[in-house]
Amino acid sequence: MAAKPTIVLVHGFWGGAAHWAKVIVELNRRGYSAQHAVENPLTSLAEDAERTRKMVAQVDGPVLLVGHSYGGAVITEAGDLPNVAGLVYIAAFAPDAGESPGAISQEQPPAAFDNIAPDSDGYLWIAQDKFRESFCQDLTSDEALVMAVTQKAPLGSTFGDTVTAPAWKVKPSWYQVSTEDRMIHPDNERRMAARMNPRKTIELAASHASLASQPGPVADLIETAARDI
């Protein structure tokens, strides 16, 4: 049996690497001991992609890149490294060349769009009292509170950063749609998934935080990809 690939997990806006906590535990239980979770600065797509590339470059052997939310744009930009064997998108942006997460969102604004506001330094925040209903309505109130208080705000300009050469055009891909997503419109997710012609698409009745609310099915998709590559 071929060795399992190393799984590199890439978080999105309003969270850090710890958003993957439940998926990490579930994958480890299934024998995927080689895992890394990138901690992106969320200051620009170029800087976040470079941070991800540096982590991938440290891995000897094939890598499966997994991106949640804006992390999907990061793996789209950083997935061109030769040892990246596949890309998994979890309720994520998958921009084409010249597209940005902001432009995609404006095409079909998500339900919670108005709950995001900039601070005086240009960082975007989800209002704490609106965080659960916006980001993770299917988590407990305590889990949502921790996410709200520890949210990692992106620099607003990052929304407008465009992808150069999308890796999903040349690498095998998989996609998970969250049908109850209020941060990325579910129809935008379906559209991005369809055009990349993924090897498998699944839909979960989940919030944007499907990686936390449904770690089992999310891990199932990641495992499917890992076995396939």
Describe this structure in words.
- The chain is built from 9 helices and 8 strands.
- The protein is an alpha/beta fold.
- Helix 3 (71-78) links the parallel strand 3 and strand 4.
- Helix 1 (21-29) crosses helix 9 and helix 2 (45-57) packs across helix 3 (71-78).
- The chain is globular, with a radius of gyration of 16 Å.
- The model has no long low-confidence stretch (mean pLDDT 97).
Question: Topology, pairings included?
Answer:
Elements: E1 6-10, H1 21-29, E2 35-38, H2 45-57, E3 63-68, H3 71-78, E4 84-90, H4 101-107, E5 116-118, E6 124-126, H5 131-135, H6 141-149, E7 173-178, H7 186-196, E8 200-204, H8 210-213, H9 215-228
Parallel strand pairs: 1-2, 1-3, 3-4, 4-7, 7-8
Antiparallel strand pairs: 5-6
Give me some keywords for this one.
single chain; 229 residues; alpha/beta; six-stranded parallel beta sheet; two-stranded antiparallel ribbon; 35% helix
Query: Main beta sheet: strand number and arrangement?
Result: 6 strands, parallel
Q: Give the overall shape, derived from the CA principal axes.
A: globular
- Give, in order, the helices and strands: EHEHEHEHEEHHEHEHH
Mean pLDDT: 97
Residue fraction in strands: 15-25%
Rg calculated over all Cα atoms: 16 Å
State the low-pLDDT regions, or none: none
Oligomeric state as shown: single chain
Helix content: 25-40%
Q: How many E strands?
A: 8
Structural class by SSE content: alpha/beta
Give the number of helices: 9
Which strand order do you get reading across the main beta sheet? 2-1-3-4-7-8
Distance between the termini: 12 Å
